[in-house]
Amino acid sequence: MEASSPVCTPEIVFFDLETTVPNKAGQRFWVLEFGAIIVCPRKLVELDSYSTLIRPKDLSAVALKSARCDGITREAVANAPAFEEVADKIFTILNGRIWAGHNIQRFDCVRIKEAFAEIGRPAPMPVGMFDSLGVLTEKFGRRAGNMKMATLATYFGLGQQKHRSLEDVRMNLEVLKHCAAVLFVESSLPSVMNGKWHNPSTMVTRSRSNGKLVFREENSRKSPPTTLGYQRAVPYTRGRLGEMTEGVRKLLCKAQETKSLNNILKHSHSLFR
Description:
Low-confidence stretches: 197-204, 220-224, 226-238, 258-273
Oligomer: single chain
Mean pLDDT: 79
Radius of gyration: 34 Å
Number of strands: 7
Order of helices and strands: EEEHHEHEHHHHEEHH
Number of helices: 9
Strand content: 15-25%
Shape: globular
Structural class: alpha/beta
């Protein structure tokens, strides 16, 4: 029988869009930037990345100056490729992978579908979806505040959010790793994290007695006293220690005279009778 081939786990693609922000009724969102990283699902390490600015059909919708220091201006996208020029690349990156991002279900996924529909092409399809906004709100709670990416990044000391696609998805991944680490510690040490831990000077030790492990508490930082379970039989008693020392001295003298390993071994058995 042939060995079954290992199941290939789909890669995760974290992606983010930067868009215009409508300020009047009837205005639409225009995609200004697409950024993505492909991540190994088993190690959560970045395998590949891609980002591009995108020139919207209506350049007047883009501000001449951005309110953010690293924001996207009209000048920045004036010579960028149009969406149809990068659609093939974006489709290849997204299609058939697990989609991940912050608030992508309500925003980024909708904008992707709109952009592909506008050029008359089918949109890419995910094999799974991981929206970190919903997952972290449920699992991590609102201890970090309003759960926006900028707030989460500040909470974990990861710096300021750049509001640029590639930087934001990398920050998204780091935030997830930090949250996962905290949740792992909390689930592993619930009594500690809930403030129910016993005296920190108390430690639990174990000894082996009659073939069974016995656990007990010690109230000192010093090493626990040796129990009968740890005492090993020795080939001599304390009373014979001096006798053994004298025997070792005589044996070394003979070794110096004969310089023969065989003679040392011949006489060594008398030490441990």
